[in-house]
UniProtKB/TrEMBL annotation:
Pfam families: MAPEG. GO terms for molecular function: glutathione peroxidase activity; glutathione transferase activity. This is Membrane-associated proteins in eicosanoid and glutathione metabolism. Keywords: Membrane, Transmembrane, Transmembrane helix. It comes from Neolentinus lepideus HHB14362 ss-1. The keyword Membrane applies. It is a multi-pass membrane protein. GO terms for cellular component: endoplasmic reticulum; membrane; nuclear envelope. It is found in: Membrane. The chain crosses the membrane at residues 12-29, 125-148. The keyword Membrane applies. PANTHER family: GLUTATHIONE S-TRANSFERASE 3, MITOCHONDRIAL, MICROSOMAL GLUTATHIONE S-TRANSFERASE. InterPro entries: MAPEG (IPR050997), MAPEG-like_dom_sf (IPR023352), Membr-assoc_MAPEG (IPR001129).
């Protein structure tokens, strides 16, 4: 039997890595509502360019759908960075993950205006800064583990 000892504060990492679940549920609901309002039928992933140019609802659907898709694309990087960083710096990791999740919510709100340029206004870029922090601290933590292993 193997015993894994987690650092003090690691429950915060666990809590923060669960926070995107609620974000994704909220984004999914927004996508469903926007899809219905735009009249975009399944399995069509996005409104066609002509549809989006002709209908504000179709453009909003595309923007909300893209915000959700972009979150899904970035989620593995955020979670891996959080867990790895959390092995040495649990409070920092949990904080960065929480800021990333908040930033993704603000990104979605800005994007859902139907004006893509607004996705980073209203605090939407906050998630990008947190992501850079997770990448850098995760890389640093991996380096620390490798150096300790070599010594």
């Amino acid at each position: 039997m193997t015993t894994v000892v987690l650092p003090k504060g690691f429950p915060y990492v666990i809590a923060s890595t669960f926070s995107p679940v609620w974000l994704l549920i909220w984004q999914s609901i927004r996508v469903s509502r926007a899809r219905r309002a735009a009249g975009i039928k399944y399995p069509q992933l996005y409104a066609e360019k002509a549809e989006a140019e002709a209908s504000k609802e179709a453009m909003v659907f595309n923007c909300v759908q893209r915000a959700h898709q972009n979150t899904l694309e970035n989620l593995p990087i955020a979670l891996i960075g959080t867990v790895i960083t959390g092995l040495r710096y649990p409070i920092l990791a949990a904080s960065l993950c929480g800021v990333w999740t908040l930033g993704r919510g603000l990104y979605t709100i800005g994007y859902a205006t139907g004006i893509p340029e607004k996705r980073t206004s209203r605090g939407g870029a906050l998630g990008s800064f947190a992501m850079v922090g997770l990448i850098l601290t995760g890389t640093w933590t991996v380096g620390e583990f490798l150096v300790a292993e070599l010594l």
